[in-house]
Amino acid sequence: MTVLVAYASRHGSTVGIAERIGDVLRAADLSVEVQSVDDVRDVTGYDAFVIGSAAYMFHWLKQATNFAKRHRAVLAERPVWLFSSGPLGTDLVDKEGRDVLETSRPKEFAELQALLQPRGEQVFFGAWDADAAPIGVGERFMGLLPKAKAALPAGDFRDWDAIDAWASEIAGQLRA
Length: 176
Ligand SMILES: Cc1cc2nc3c(=O)[nH]c(=O)nc-3n(C[C@H](O)[C@H](O)[C@H](O)COP(=O)(O)O)c2cc1C
Known about the structure:
Elements: E1 2-8, H1 13-27, E2 31-36, E3 48-56, E4 59-60, H2 62-70, H3 72-75, E5 80-85, H4 100-103, H5 108-116, E6 120-124, E7 127-128, H6 136-143, H7 146-151, E8 155-156, H8 160-175
Parallel strand pairs: 1-2, 1-3, 3-5, 5-6
Antiparallel strand pairs: 3-4, 7-8
Helix pairs in contact: 1-8
Bound molecules: flavin mononucleotide.
Residues 9-14, 54-58, 85-88, 104, 126-128, 138-139, 142, 152 line the site of flavin mononucleotide.
């Protein structure tokens, strides 16, 4: 059983989540590869998939969605789990009292649910370094708007316990 953990990331924090999931699966005696979606050409050699992306402006990164759609024929036949990285901060609920992990569900998940019927999906808190060089037009634009930038909580909010627990659940299902 070989599992592919495929990720899309802009600033690197999602890579850390993907690698951590890989570590947990390996510790459960599964064979695992952790790769960027950009580097995977052929998915036929994998028996199961964990696919994750950072979320920006309510969307998964395009390369992750394209990967999932491009390989949907194989993915739909095999066990798949999806995860997303974002939101930022420590608040579990927003001003309206809504669960921030629910409101941060990327818009693509509804379509990917229908397309791939994943065994599970999860949103994890992410990380953002306010001093990192901006990537893309949106971030460069945001840099020009000090108020917008100040509104975004900076720091590493990744919840390693939640990540480990989710990965352990996947390992348990794959080994069953
Ligand atoms: C400009 C900007 C927009 C963002 N938009 C969202 C969003 O819409 N939803 C969300 O959950 N997180 C959002 N985030 C937080 C990122 O998803 C989070 O920082 C993530 O961990 C980044 O992953 P990466 O380091 O792999 O790129 C945003 C961050 C930035 C800087």
